[in-house]
Amino acid sequence: MSGPTRSPTLADVADAAGVSLSTASLAFSGNKPVSDATRQRVLGAAESLGYTGPNPLARNLRQGRSGVVGIAVGQLSTAFRDPAALPMLDAVSEVLGAAGLGLLLMGDEDDHARLPLDAVIYDICGRETWAAYDAFVARGIPLVVVEGPTWPGTTFVDIDHRGGSAALARHLHDLGHRRVAVLTLEPSHPQRQREAGLRDVFPDAVVIGACASDHGAAQQLASDWFDSSPDATVLVCQSDVQAAAVVVEARRRGLSVPGDLSVAGFDGVPTPWLDLELTTIAQPLGDKGRAVARAALARIEGDDVEDVLLPVTLRVGSSTGPA
Fold first, then answer.
1. Taking every annotated instance into account, which residue ranges of this chain make up the domain HTH lacI-type (predicted)?
2. Inter-CA distances, 24 with 21, 42, 64, Å
3. Quick check: 266 and 231 in contact, CB under 8 A?
4. Which residue of 39, 61, 144, 230 is surrounded by the most CB atoms within 10 Å?
């Protein structure tokens, strides 16, 4: 009875291909020029021997890397409830996975400072302080920040919040609206920029409250506002989840949208529980995630990376009409 067979090594591949061990290694890594003929000979030898390639964990350790990128997403219990967050996370994981890197989701209450990470993505909407920031900077860990804050030493990936909100406001102004109310996000870079864009057109817009992109919280604020007998003809929300909650509450009270009240949102996410399409500002969620991941990869390699500002698009639905 024969004993267990030995797994093929890179040295076996090099011998079979008739090249040096270093040439075989370069053929797999692609870090330095190797002729196509030599690369194909090495890959052919590897296939015939059943060799699948160098161990990525060992390679990362030799390079002083963990092969893992962390992403701070706030409360893990609620991280997957925001429909605007999921497409971006999918795109980030797709790009990092193709590069052989893993993605570690981190809650805002965890101690991240000592984690062996190759880079960190900060995506806690509404949070502008983070205890781990100074520690990561001190360790030289590359940081990519999504939609603020603009911390020193980080790469900033953002969307045109202000320009998008101004475009939405001009659309509402063209419909004849002059009495405007706004439901904002909690204090943050996106909240300030979206409100500033609205006030570029409607400087006297009345803020009715602030909450996260949460259906229950937004519906309660809308309910309190309706109880105050408002005279606004349109309520602009800073997320589509908020806007959907306002539509639900309006209808619960027998109000017509947009007949009695126009409602607009921001994000461009699906709202399949509504029988109307929201007027909103659609942001490129997948493109944003890919830009974030590419910036993280470039920072890992030591490259200088410029900040990124992505455009947004006005999408007119059936939730807004003439004042």
1. 8-63
2. 5, 6, 22
3. no
4. 144
Distance of CA 24 to the CA centre of its chain: 38
Query: DSSP per residue over 66-117, as a string?
Result: -SEEEEE-S-TTTTTT-TTHHHHHHHHHHHHHHTT-EEEEE-TTS--TT---
pLDDT given at position 156: 94
Residue 120: φ, ψ to 5° = -135, 135
Query: What is 126-169 written as a DSSP string?
Result: T----THHHHHHHHT--EEEES----TTEEEEEE-HHHHHHHHH
Q: Is the pLDDT of residue 312 over 90?
A: yes
User: Across all residues in the chain, what is the average pLDDT?
Assistant: 87
Residue 65 region, left (φ>0) first, then alpha (ψ -120 to 50), else beta? beta
Prediction pTM value: 0.78
Lookup: tokens for 67: 């092969």
- Lowest-confidence pick of 64-68, 120-124, 260-264: 64-68
Percent of the chain with pLDDT over 70: 87
Evaluate whether 183 touches 214 at the Cβ level (below 8 Å): no
106 beta partners: 72
> Would the pLDDT of 62 be above 80?
no
Is the Cβ–Cβ distance between 42 and 13 less than 8 Å?
yes
134-179 confidence digits (pLDDT tens):
888 888 899 999 997 888 889 999 999 999 999 999 999 999 999 9
pLDDT in tens, 83-124: 888 899 899 999 999 988 988 888 766 567 678 899 999 886
Number of residues that make up the chain? 323
Contact 242, 249 (CB under 8 A): no
Query: For residue 99, which phi and psi values (nearest 5 degrees)?
Result: -90, 5
Torsion sign (Cα): 81, 147, 305, 154: negative
First-to-last alpha carbon distance for the chain, in angstroms, is: 87
